[in-house]
Amino acid sequence: MENLASKYDGILQSGNLTKYILETSVYPREPESLKELRNATASYPMHFMGTHPDAGKLMGILLKLLNAKKTIEIGVFTGYSLLLTALNIPDDGKIIALDPDRKAYEVGLPFIKKAGVEHKIDFTESPALPVLDKLLEDPSNDENFDFAFVDADKHNYWNYHERLIKLIKIGGLIIYDNTLWGGTVAWPEEALLDPRRKKVRQDAIAFNNAIASDTRIEICLASIGDGFTICRRAH
Ligand code: SAM
Ligand code: CA
Fold this sequence. Notes:
- By secondary structure, the chain is α/β, with parallel strands linked by helices.
- Helix content is 41%, strand content 19%.
- It has a single domain, classed as Vaccinia Virus protein VP39 (Rossmann fold, 3-Layer(aba) Sandwich).
- The chain has helices at residues 15-26, 32-41, 53-66, 80-87, 102-114, 128-137, 157-167, 195-212; strands spanning 70-74, 94-99, 121-125, 145-150, 168-177, 217-222, 228-233.
- It has a seven-stranded mixed beta sheet with strand order 3-2-1-4-5-7-6, with helices on both faces.
- Strand 1, helix 4 (80-87) and strand 2 (94-99) form a beta-alpha-beta unit.
- It starts with 14 loop residues before the first helix and ends with a strand.
- Bound molecules: S-adenosylmethionine and calcium ion (CA).
- Calcium ion is lined by residues 51, 151, 177-178, 226.
- It comes from Medicago truncatula (Barrel medic).
- Belongs to the class I-like SAM-binding methyltransferase superfamily. Cation-dependent O-methyltransferase family.
- It is an enzyme of class 2 (transferase).
- One of its GO terms (molecular function) is O-methyltransferase activity.
């Protein structure tokens, strides 16, 4: 039953349809710097972790609609979503970018510099939780951010949520990535054999259930990329 090939075909689980969408509307309009970063990532270990470019397009539009200026990114890797965010916020916008892996960030850094947006990025080489806790020690950070993108260790998503909900403004957005985990959230438990993937599936299901009953937010679990849970802070 375990079919890992489908993981790379996006949540549609159709290579042809995913290819059609990417080739028709995403790649032709993808900024050159993002394309170059994506190509440089293609030969890097675990390259498939980069944000799906079609989901990236949606994120770019949401950032613009929101007029997002101050954002938080948890899980940078080589920086596809980070560069995309930097390209979609104003010149005086700021992104707090958190990842314990600086080496991966440095793969994308030349393209971030070439795009002229490095000044918008404040990268901290660290797991995200202690940095979020530090931000929360200063009350001026409460409700001070417009947007957050979470694409890191799945078992911590609820811990991130409890902190981000205080940092994000009312009306602001938090997006959680990979919440459909290759579609496996709807598979029977015994269908997954790999214990690590089984655990992430359980984490995703627990997070999806918890967030669905959080009345502080409006949510849309969008079937794009690998599942994008878009949350708007309602109050
Ligand atoms: N958003 C990235 C992109 O568009 O290329 C992909 C992120 S990748 C799926 C997950 C990243 O989360 C990895 O780079 C990993 O080092 C990072 N990560 C793992 N644990 C973390 C933690 N506790 N805090 C922050 N980042 C973490
Ligand atoms: Ca992801």
